[in-house]
Amino acid sequence: MVGVPFLRLNDALALQPLVDQYGRAFKRAPVLSDPDLESAVVDHLLPEKLITILEADAQWYRVNGGYVPRAVLQPVAPYERPEIAAQAGFPATVITPTTLIREYCSVLAPILDRVGWGAVLHVVDRLRDDYGEWWYGVSTAADGSLIGWTPALHWAKLMLETPLFADLLRIDLAAQMIEAYHVGNSIARLPIRVLGKVSAGDTVVETMAISSAAPKLGSPYHLTLKNGLTIYGVWWHNDFANSSAQEFNQSNSGSIELPAYAAQALYKLITPNIAVSIS
Questions:
Q1: What are the structural domains, with CATH classification, of the chain?
Q2: Please, which residues have CB within 8 angstroms of residue 82's CB and are 6 or more apart in sequence?
Q3: Which of 192, 161, 188 is nearest to 174 (CA)?
Q4: R_g over Cα of the chain
Q5: Count of CB atoms situated within 10 Å of the CB of 61
Q6: Phi, psi of 14 (to 5 degrees)
Q7: pTM score, two decimals?
Q8: How confident is the model at residue 214 (pLDDT cuts 50, 70, 90)?
Q9: 17: DSSP letter
Q10: What is the pLDDT of residues 45-96, one digit of tens each?
Q11: Four-point Cα dihedral 236, 166, 275, 58, nearest 10
């Protein structure tokens, strides 16, 4: 699993692991000559620029010309042109580095919001513009109100089938990792970011690919525990398993974040009432 040091998935899951091949720059950031914050600056990345990742470890990405910290880039999968759905009424995920939500079906329409790779929303309508291009009308719920319009070629229908389910989740707050087990065997170990104070073990009571209560539009793959703790994916940062749990425990938000690709991998394994161990 070169490039994704925290992700281990059993071959029986038939899941394609996301290998770090490309990254989206969150903001303008320096490229360093060596994997050391004190090394010389040799270049700069521009916001939203798509970067080829040559190598990756737990702290750094090597890119053309030098190194950047993992927190600088969101890993994204290579783009594959999706099939345009024949009708609306399904959840979809962003497959481009970012996409815009506009007021109506036109590249000249006012921008209402922006979401990144891995974000999930419901497609509740579809229209073709004057140039023959398809647009999806999106919402945070299957029966929710329309948020706006976005190019259909930026989205793919969400497919979440998997032949194997986990029966236990272990959350390690100190290491900031979450691990899924099936009959005693570890099938996934994923990086997390802990926000707020987290209480002892519990069970998952609800799973949702999309939640209207998400902290940001399109935050994907929500798991809610009986004690109210939520676990979900994010597309707006890539800072996981590197900061102390104590630092994040100072807030009161009571949630756990995963990278979008890791959240999807975990979500495929989970059913309600799975046991959760927190330590």
A1: 19-75 (2.30.30.40), 90-157 (2.30.30.40), 168-278 (2.40.440.10)
A2: 95, 152, 153, 155, 156, 157
A3: 192
A4: 19
A5: 26
A6: 55, 35
A7: 0.83
A8: confident
A9: -
A10: 999 889 999 998 888 999 999 999 999 999 998 899 999 999 999 999 999 9
A11: -40
